[in-house]
Amino acid sequence: MKLSDELPVDHRLAKVYRMGAGLCGAILVTFGILGFTRKLGFFDTSGESIAGLSTNGLLSLISLVVGGLLLAGAVVGGNVASTLNMTIGTLFVLSGFVHLFILDRSANILDFGMSNVVFSFVMGLLILTFGMYGRVTGGLPHDNPYWRRRHPEEAEREADAARRSAAAGGMLGR
Question: Residue 4: what pLDDT?
């Protein structure tokens, strides 16, 4: 079964995935655009900051691209948005760890400061939460497509019981 077949197109979880991708994508695109309006050098590490985060031209470009990907995921929606949120959220958290170790070193070509590291962790966890919502938990309701996928035998028994109940109700109505 393909991942895209797990979630019905009109399922209510798709709204959460779209909203999360759209919100986080808009924040990143705004940050990227503000960076480009300052005409920063591509690899400049002089400490220019926007909204309390240090930046340069390369970080602005990366923010625009990643934000654009999230906005595209918001447009597509469904499992695409969820999977994209989980992937990008994971990359943000990993980026936070990597940049935590390269602060104040020549390898810090994105001009990350501690505020950028904290932002990377927070944004990553936020995007991950939007992506995992309704997919990863112990208490999924039985109408959730992810629960049905993980418990096919029990889901089939419940579907059979519902069909028998509907058939009995139809015969009583005659």
Answer: 43
